[in-house]
């Protein structure tokens, strides 16, 4: 079973709309989450990270973390067609050196 | 800043062939990773290395070998290429267990 579950698998939002992506870990030792964005044909790039309870905002992007439920979410407001990409959630847990990645959410923003 | 280079960019092999992919980083990071990504899917960890001459198996190590000859380089060998296999192999590096930086990928096609 995947240690990191992401939902939904795919998401279509209109330009200017809000996109909400979810990620939950089953590893109780997780202490850090990252969100990566991967445009088609490119390699993943880190978008945001969070390790404290609460929320963190950077421009149009907001990430939330609930450490008790090991759940993080990424919200993109005023979505743009250039936000269309695969969004990967990664969690740092107990194993030295490695992250666990989820299967990703494919976001499509329709002009 | 730094950069990760992967060679070759494209690799076409024959069924049963042994194929080697190479990765170099100049971040001076201790930890390096090899991931496999099938089209539109998430990342699956093949091998990682937390220091020179160290090797740790990931979730998908069967059918692959790896070698960390020096701190800046990490090689991956497909021991016997499978017919019709198509995937992108991504190399990454990180300092301690922090943010991972990815290379541009090697695209493998097996005829």
Quickly list its features.
heterodimer, A: 111 residues, mainly beta, six-stranded mixed β-sheet, five-stranded antiparallel β-sheet, 57% strand, B: 111 residues, seven-stranded mixed β-sheet, four-stranded antiparallel β-sheet, 11 strands, 54% strand, globular
Shape of chain A: globular
Number of helices of chain A: 0
Provide the gyration radius of chain B in Å: 13 Å
Using DSSP, what is the number of strands of chain B? 11
Number of helices of chain B: 0
Instruction: Provide the succession of SSEs of chain B.
Output: EEEEEEEEEEE
SS-derived structural category of chain A = mainly beta
Q: How would you sum up the major sheet of chain A?
A: 6 strands, mixed
Task: Kindly report the greatest chain-chain contact and the residue count on each side.
Answer: A-B, 22 and 21 residues
Give the termini distance of chain A in whole angstroms: 37 Å
Low-confidence stretches of chain B: none
Computed structural class of chain B: mainly beta
Distance N to C terminus of chain B: 38 Å
How much helicity do the residues of chain A have?
Answer: under 10%
Gyration radius from CA atoms of chain A, angstroms: 13 Å
Strand content of chain A: over 45%
Give a quick precis of the structure.
The complex is a heterodimer of chains A (111) and B (111). With 111 residues, chain A is an all-beta fold.
Can you put this structure into words, describing what you see?
- The complex is a heterodimer of chains A (111) and B (111).
- Chain A has 111 residues and is mainly β.
- In chain A, 0% of the residues lie in helices and 57% in strands.
- Chain A is built from no helices and eleven strands.
- Chain A has strands at 4-7, 10-14, 19-25, 32-38, 45-50, 54-58, 61-66, 71-76, 85-92, 99-101, 105-110.
- In chain A, strands 2, 4, 5, 9, 10 and 11 form a six-stranded mixed beta sheet that branches. A five-stranded antiparallel beta sheet of chain A has the order 1-3-8-7-6, with no helix packed on it.
- The radius of gyration of chain A is 13 Å and the shape is globular.
- The model of chain A has no long low-confidence stretch (mean pLDDT 94).
- Chain B is mainly β.
- Chain B is 0% helix and 54% strand.
- Chain B has no helices and eleven strands.
- Chain B is globular, with a radius of gyration of 13 Å.
- The termini of chain B are far apart.
- The model of chain B has no long low-confidence stretch (mean pLDDT 94).
- The A-B interface holds A 6, 32, 34, 42-46, 49, 86, 88, 90, 92, 96-99, 101-104, 106 and B 31, 33, 35, 40-43, 45, 48, 50, 56, 58, 90, 97, 99-105.
